[in-house]
């Protein structure tokens, strides 16, 4: 089990390990390749999880359908919230390195029971996010193949995406993070070029109706905020690289804070440009399945549309690799604390990857992705899993926001500004949580809070059962 530290121990640790004096102290994660990832590669894990190419390609239109002209405001609020949240995560990542990420952080602040709930929540979020982005991968891969007159069913494309993502995650974290970061950089660059073309064709004058506070309501902005958050989820993925990062107490916090800030600025600008691009075309941004391709064709740069389609396919695929990688490290940590079978701690000696954890993650994700693609439309698969994934992230993020000031209090470092920042972050996170249940949404989405609640209940009961087993085993050993 996770070792509990007394208040005195926390004070002693905080004196020895501070943000100004980074340490290479690493918690339990045997077998992974230590000190192997540069800042660029650590950043690649967070950026791949976010998949910034995917947001203008498919998420911004969905947010626009909910928030309308307030789309850019939804993204500003989400950016601010995620940057503040990154500061809460960095309360821990600056002090020690771990492969357990949020699971370990919440455990250290709020105890084993709540920590396990946060771990279950983030694993739920990673798995459902992977299914959603695989649906996005299938949508854009289908479009890409159509250019060369090839048509494959969506379930087959999801299966291909799952298998190849699993293979990449198994290959080794250095190769996967370098590949993901490079591909995302190229894709974002191409989208940025399209944005500049759109600005040029509109004489660098964004339509005032799209940026002024007209036809905007807080209700609509709040409605779009949940999916705006979905554009950022997984930015904390770098925290699971604690064992593998070089200078983890320096590079991991930098990656965690810079990734949501940089992509947030990109999302706000692109939402404004895309709203401008669709204005007066007779087409609705909120109904477009290929908004960037449409804008590229309309502005006589069709070749950029083809490039963006390729970039979107790679981005969705990279995100799958990223969440499998991060999730497998958390499974390893849970295994080392006897909450999951020891097999989840197995690390391939040559590749230094948690083979079994990655394999189980890939199997679950592939089963859900292919299964739902067979039962419903690919669009529903993306929207449903993307929407329910937000619940897993928001609850885990809310718990880390509560845990950070508690941890600082235990280590005698709590300051008033820590409490204020934590409260502001919690309020911003509560907006999409409340909006997801009130007013009650229509369709299958209204059942999602109950599905997620059932998952947390199962996780709670599982934790209590395992704790009881461990206590009995300890009692027998003592005898």
Automatic annotation (TrEMBL):
The answer to keyword Ion transport applying to this record is: no
Residue spans crossing the bilayer: 62-86, 122-141, 147-169, 181-200, 212-235, 256-283, 303-326, 356-378, 384-409, 416-435, 447-465
Looking at the UniProt record for this protein, which Gene Ontology cellular component terms does it annotate, in alphabetical order? membrane
Outline the extent of the Amino acid permease/ SLC12A domain.
46-433
**Membrane topology annotation:** Multi-pass membrane protein
Subcellular compartments: Membrane
Cross-referenced InterPro entries? AA-permease/SLC12A_dom (IPR004841), APC_superfamily (IPR050367)
Gene Ontology BP annotations: transmembrane transport
**Could you tell me the keywords of this UniProt record?**
Membrane, Transmembrane, Transmembrane helix
The entry's protein name is Amino acid permease-associated region
Q: Which organism is it from?
A: Liquorilactobacillus ghanensis DSM 18630
